[in-house]
Amino acid sequence: MKREQIFRAALFDLDGTLIDTEGQYTTFWGREGRAYVPDIPDFAQRIKGTTLANILSTYFPGEERRAEIKRRLDRFERGMSFPTIAGAERFVADIKARGVRCAIVTSSNRDKLACVRRAQPAFLTLFDAILTAEDFRRSKPDPDCYLRAADRLGADARHCVVFEDAPNGLVAGTNAGMFVVGLATGNPEEDVAPLCNYVVPDFTGITYDDINRRMDGKNNRHAAD
Q1: How far, in Å, CA of 177 to CA of 113, rounded?
Q2: For residue 2, what pLDDT band results from cuts at 50, 70 and 90?
Q3: What is the Cα–Cα distance from 122 to 62, expressed in whole angstroms?
Q4: Model-level pTM?
Q5: Which of 22, 165, 199, 218 counts the highest number of beta carbons within 10 A?
Q6: What are the backbone angles phi and psi of residue 183, rounded to the nearest 5°?
Q7: C-alpha torsion 141→142→145→148, nearest 10
Q8: 218: which residues sit within 8 A by CB, 6+ positions away?
């Protein structure tokens, strides 16, 4: 019997989910953390998935210091590389062919996205919408960004799948009432698994049918309860 098409919209985080940049950001923010907030040894991990505005306002007092950190980050991003996560391009093309609408939902700003676009122009054309930090009011783990993305795509939350690697983003997807796929690209699988419905090492080997089947199973369990 053919399964109902439950999986209709895919909402992807960017860094560490579609683009393999988390190691580079860990280097940058680890350095800033050691210099300015040495009392938070896990600073680089703690801020993953949050907007730059949130990071600066929460941890770096003073406009002059914030402006200097932003200037350093801008220079750093211009020199970064932006390779895709294994299997990402094939997977997005596969689900697009099945009628799934796709959006990038990133805490990065438009300046950073311009760097990614220069490095991966063809890849970004696969997405129906791209939301950056300027497009939502509250940073992850608040669900605002994913709810706005679903609205942009005209999709109900129960038909949306969030793909995330960072704890803040995984919690945001769950708080949005969506099916959450966690990628263990930057964190151990045992840390990711409790925060999502399904955990994978990357996109290699997963398909539309795999996700749709798992969503269907989850819905059937809830109906039985």
Answers
A1: 27
A2: low
A3: 40
A4: 0.88
A5: 165
A6: -100, 125
A7: 150
A8: 179, 197
